[in-house]
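User: Hey, quick favor. My workstation is busy. Could you predict this chain's structure for me?
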Amino acid sequence: MKENFIRIMSLTVFLIFLALYYSSNAGLIDYQAKNKTQLTEEQIQMFEEDVKNHVEIDLKKYMDNKEEKYDNSISKTTLKVSNSIGKTVKSILDYFFHKMEKVMKG
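Assistant: No problem, here it is.
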C-alpha cells in the first residue's frame, strides 16, 4: 500500500512539474523568437528600400535598441501574486515531502 501510494504521488508531482516547465518555457521562448524575427524582417525591408532610393545608410537606424519598460501597477501586482503562488507551492511541497518522509520511515 505504501509503495503504491508513493509511486502515484511521485508520478503526479513529476507530471505536474513537466507540464508547468514545458508550458512556461516553450510558449515564452517561441513568442520572443518570433518577435525578434519579425523585427529583423522589418529592418531588412527598410534597409533594402533605403538602398534602392540611394539614401545614406546609417547602421544605428536599423538596429533594435528599444528597451521596453514593464514598470507599471499591473506588472507589480502580478509579480506579487506570482511570488505568493511560489511561496504557497513551496510550502505545500515541503509539507508533502515531510509527510512522505514520515510514511517511508514508518
